[in-house]
Amino acid sequence: MQRRKFIKHSMAGVPIAASLLSTACTSKEVADPKTKRVLVIGAGLSGLAAARQLHEKGFIVTVLEAQNTIGGRLRTNRSTGIAFDEGASWIHGIDGNPMTTLAQQAGMQTYPTVDESRVSYDIGGIKRKAAVYDAAEDELYAILGSLMKQGSNTRSFESVFNAIYPTKANDRLWRFFLSTYVTFDTGDLDKLSSLLYNEGEEYSGVETIATNGYDTIATYLAKGLDIRPGQRVTAIDYSSPIVKITHNGSISEADYVIVTVPLGVLKKESIRFTPMLPASKQVAIRSVGMNCVNKFLLIWEKAFWDDVQYISYTPAVRDKFNYFVNVRKYQPTVNALMTFAYADYARQTETMTDTQVVTEIMAHLRDIYGTGIPEPATLLRTKWQNNEFTFGAYSYTAINTEMTHFDDLAEAIDNRLFFAGEHTHIDYFSTAHGAWLSGIREAGKIIDLL
After folding, report:
1. How many CA atoms lie within 13 A of 149 on its CB side?
2. Which residues form the Amine oxidase domain (predicted)?
3. Residue 166: is it exposed, middle or buried by C-beta count within 10 angstroms (0-12/13-18/19+)?
4. How much is the average pLDDT of 354-364?
5. Which residues, 6+ apart, have CB-to-CB distance to 166 below 8 Å?
6. Nearest Cα to 416, choosing from 274, 287, 297?
7. Helix axes 432-449, 98-106, angle to 10 degrees
8. Closest CA to 282 of 188, 435, 413, 156
9. How far from each other are the two terminal CA atoms of the chain, in whole angstroms?
């Protein structure tokens, strides 16, 4: 499940440089951080990272979280006795990745997932030859490395790809690759920029998946912080040096505010800003895309599937339950498969009942393994698009997105209103490590003001 594995960069995983204190004005009076109030909106990874950094520097930090739990899109469901990560699951490249260190500090247990441990099936349960799969995968990487030369900022990835490769556009294996290797990592192909689809950096090293819950990192970061759950922020007035935040009918004041709500929430204009946000930030909010990926965990009494890490299926409908992660490989006592839906089909699943979802998933599995396989005992699922605290899964480079929009999203206003979140990191947008790095970045901005 290598995210952006097709991207080739000469430098990846370069740490953010430490801020340098200016020595030009030796007579400058340094303010005491213990007199400065910081209000962080959102207890997701970026908010917790910023709050932790500022708290350790002595600032008076309060975190307002609209939900009743912390972690944001680091959300782990343990209702079945196992950890099902509804949001982030993998550390994407462990070498130099800050999540690797955080996971170790937090006690998050991980397992290296091997992309090459896989089997692919076509309609009719026909097992695809590994050489055919591998050849198509290699060709895909070559295409992804050059397609942007034919692209433009106003044309979608889908329109350019279909025009150049019309036969591949209707080939089931290629539809699978475009779904799981492109849509999953980025966003809707008919909205994805044909020019910027492969932007973003990546860390090298193996992929590891959390086995005891990604939210262990959120729990670790939250220790000792003043976090107030169930506080929905509806307005931010930054028209004066003291910022006023309206939440649950009350007003709190702070010297600095860090807004870490997801891009989907900003798109919905769930928070009223006074004065209105700068035009450049409004354009960026509208222009950067917000993908939807939903996850589905199915548990059985006994396993009936191949003993490999990944099982792929190439149905007629793109983005529909075409990839299965074998949970038994990293949870040997658990007979479970995890599958996905992407983009518009992911949104469609949110209108479907559990029974309808299971029926559609089992139709694929029965085509592979026969009609005699049993119904699952348990289904767990996500609904990220209609989640009022996210309105989607993560950001991507849509048509009309410009890379400067990520910097615009991160731009502070008047040295008192700051913005963090994966959608504000120009190199690592759409990732958990991007969210964390953005929180550290904004905390650094505030520290440097003293």
Report:
1. 6
2. 45-447
3. exposed
4. 98
5. none
6. 274
7. 90
8. 413
9. 43
Per-residue pLDDT band at 289 (split at 50, 70, 90): very high
Domain ranges of the chain: 33-76+212-288+399-449, 112-207+290-381
Q: Which segments of 215-316 are extended strands (E)?
A: 226-228, 233-237, 243-247, 250-254, 256-259, 272-274, 289-291, 293-299, 310-314
Query: Between these two residues, 11 and 182, which has the higher pLDDT value?
Result: 182
Residue 93 pLDDT: 96
Which token pair is 355?
A: 């029974």
Residue range 86-111, pLDDT digits in tens? 999 999 999 999 999 999 999 999 99
Identify which of 45, 41, 44 has the alpha carbon closest to the alpha carbon of residue 63.
41
The CA dihedral of 302, 121, 85, 263, to the nearest 10 degrees, is -160
Residue 373's contacts (CB-CB under 8 Å, 6 or more residues apart) are 304, 362, 365, 366
pLDDT (average), residues 63-90: 97
pLDDT above 60 for 202: yes
Rg of the chain on CA atoms, in Å? 22
Number of H helices, E strands in the chain: 13, 23
Locus of tokens 């502070």? 412
CATH number of 112-207+290-381: 3.90.660.10
Instruction: Please state the pTM of the whole predicted model.
Output: 0.93
Say yes or no to pLDDT of 360 above 70.
Answer: yes
Residue 374 is classified by DSSP as P
pLDDT digits (tens, 9 = 90+) for 15-24: 333 332 333 3
Q: How far is CA 433 from the centre of its chain?
A: 9
**Is 298 in a helix, a strand, or coil?**
strand
DSSP H or E stretch at residue 133: helix 130-144
Round to whole Å and give the CA distance between 327 and 393: 22
Domain 33-76+212-288+399-449 of CATH type 3.50.50.60:
yes
3-state SS class at 237: strand
Instruction: Look up residue 288 and give its DSSP letter.
Output: S
